[in-house]
Each structure stands twice: as C-alpha cells, then as structure tokens.
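Reviewers of the previous submission asked for a worked example of the structure-prediction workflow described in the proposal, so we include one complete record here. The input consisted solely of the amino acid sequence. No template or homolog information was supplied to the procedure at any stage.
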Amino acid sequence: MRLDPTDRRHSIWFFFAGFAELLLGRTETAIKLLQQSLERNPGYGAAQLFLMAALSLIGRGAEAAETAASFRKQYPDYRTTTFEQLWLSRSGCATYRAQIHPLFERIRTLGVAN
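From that input alone, the workflow returned the following structure tokens.
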C-alpha cells in the first residue's frame, strides 16, 4: 500500500505515530514523524504542539521556539489548558499521565498561552 504524498488527510497517521514514539521516549523518531505530518498539513496544531515539546526535550530550543512562534501566529487565542484537558481525558492511567504531563510543561515553557 502506498500513501499519496499530496493527500493532507494522511497527516493524522504521521501525527499519531509521532505521538506514540514520543510517549515511548523515541524522540528523534517522533520528531521525524511529526514533521512529516506537518509537511502534509502545515496547519495541524496538535502536531505543532507536540513537535515543539519534542524539540525542546532534546535541546533543540531554537527550533522549538520557532515552532511555538509559528503556532502562536496561526492560533493567537488558543489555550494550552484546553488541549491538555482533551489529552488527559483520554486515559486515567497513571503511566500515560506521567508521560504526557512533561510534554505540556515544555509547551507552556515555550510561551504558548495557558
């Protein structure tokens, strides 16, 4: 099976693969997948948020800040807490929450509005 490289809808597959890799601690792989998601759909806010967190985690602060600035420009009224509550509501599992909480801390430190 081949994915049409021009089909924006496939960005969601790259996003969830990148998100899963990020939770598993495979940050470099997560970054590549999240970037592929954004190549197909540059306005995909969730991919931008988790990409900035991933970049920040591995010390690529300038790229993380650039991604955060791009996100804020696209979504100036967005509140991180709304997104965080959406993702926290997906599971009450303590392991999941321990994995995702630091990502939102990174996003907040990059200045994305609460």
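The chain has one domain: 8-109. We consider this example representative of the routine output the project will generate in years two and three.
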